[in-house]
Design goal:
The structure holds two protein chains of two kinds. Chain A is of the alpha+beta class. In chain A, β3 and β4 form a beta hairpin. In chain A, α1 crosses α3. The longest helix of chain A has 16 residues. By secondary structure, chain B is of the alpha+beta class. Helix content of chain B is about 30%, strand content about 35%. In chain B, β3 and β4 form a beta hairpin. In chain B, α1 crosses α3. The longest helix of chain B has 16 residues. Chain B is globular, with a radius of gyration of 16 Å. The chains are: A alpha+beta, B alpha+beta. Chains A and B meet through β7 and β8 of A and β7 and β8 of B.
């Protein structure tokens, strides 16, 4: 799948080391519910399991200009009865958050979720302090659905979590 | 055994399983639950056997009416997250003649006291379908606050419905007199 700035492609075993480094190089709060003890072998195992699962879809995000992998985006816990899934996106470098690459990748993945998989709802959760991420998700059409008070403990403090979602109708209107 | 006012909570036994299977297959009850497929007695037994393994991720207890000593429903803490000290609570009154008699609220308060005073949790939350107004009212009575409305989160009875997320913090529960 090709957008303006990025290309989405399947995750391959050769991406394991890149993913492993991204996951471990990140601020844990960005990763929310990620398992903290992820090692390279488990990363590879995760890729193998993901490619054979019918409740998970994951793509590497390649920069169109350089051809280099710059992030990964996924739909997790796809529920076919409720036609919903959880969305995640992880970028390898902070600079991509303001350059339009995240939005481009998000739109491609949402297009896949709504127009190929026929999902009805895509949701995510983010820390209330992560204003950059919230703004970026809003730009892509996600709407805030409330505030889960003091739901996470991180660095000596309890933090609020913001659930956000986009429905298929929202996406089609905004396209 | 964990004591409440009109009810007490106790561990589930093998002899309870048949009753529980009947409850969750009752469409009037299933309307409010997450199950999609009819549940066989064997499946329910397998669920029970699985629950007997050592596990600190959750606990499901039977609700017993003190007056009649009848097992009328279950209440459970699910996916206990020990790092964040948060758990999700779920409750079901399976014997329908006990609906709207305050025993659910009683059982809920008993489980909350257990969650905060014995398990040392900081927050308990729940998810309830938006059309389940009776339940939402009873959760508010227990001190839960609406925290989010997840739009079109679930498909039931031919259309999409919102899921309401409600939560109560330890300090809120204690301020109500625990």
């Amino acid at each position: 799948m090709e957008g303006r700035l990025v290309k989405l492609r399947p995750v391959e075993q050769r991406d394991a080391e890149t993913l492993f480094l991204w996951y471990n190089g990140h601020d844990v709060m960005d990763l929310m519910d990620m398992d903290l003890s992820l090692d390279l072998a488990r990363t590879m195992d995760m890729i193998a399991k993901g490619s054979s699962s019918n409740t998970f879809v994951g793509f590497m995000i390649d920069d169109k200009k350089t051809g280099v992998a710059i992030g990964v985006t996924t739909l997790n816990d796809i529920n076919w009865t409720d036609r919903k899934a959880d969305f995640s996106i992880l970028m390898g470098g902070k600079d991509y958050w303001s350059s339009g690459h995240v939005e481009d990748a998000t739109r491609l993945l949402l297009d896949h979720a709504f127009c190929i998989l026929d999902l009805h709802r895509v949701s995510l959760e983010t820390c209330s302090q992560n204003l950059g991420a919230i703004q970026c998700h809003e730009k892509c059409g996600f709407i805030r659905e409330g505030t889960l008070r003091k739901a996470r403990y991180w660095r000596c403090e309890r933090h609020d979590i913001i659930p956000m979602s986009i429905l298929s109708d929202d996406f089609r209107e905004g396209r | 055994m964990i004591g409440g006012r009109g009810v007490y909570l106790r561990a589930l036994e093998r002899c309870d399983v048949e009753r529980m299977q009947k409850w969750i297959n009752d469409p009037q009850i299933g309307e409010f639950l997450v199950f999609h497929f009819p549940y066989s007695l064997d499946q329910e037994m397998a669920w029970f056997d699985n629950k007997q393994k050592p596990n600190d991720r959750g606990v499901v207890l039977g609700i017993v009416d003190r007056e009649t000593d009848r097992h009328i429903g279950n209440v459970g803490l699910h996916g206990i997250d020990w790092v964040n000290s948060v758990a999700e609570i779920g409750i079901m009154i399976g014997e329908k003649e006990y609906w709207s008699r305050g025993l659910g609220t009683d059982a809920m308060e008993t489980m909350l006291r257990y969650a905060f005073s014995d398990l040392n949790l900081e927050k308990v939350f729940l998810r309830v379908y938006g059309f389940n107004k009776r339940a939402i009212r009873s959760y508010e009575k227990c001190g839960f606050v609406v925290e989010a409305t997840l739009r079109d989160d679930v498909f039931k009875k031919g259309s999409y419905h919102d899921t309401i997320v409600m939560g109560i913090l330890r300090e809120e529960f204690e301020a109500r007199g625990g």
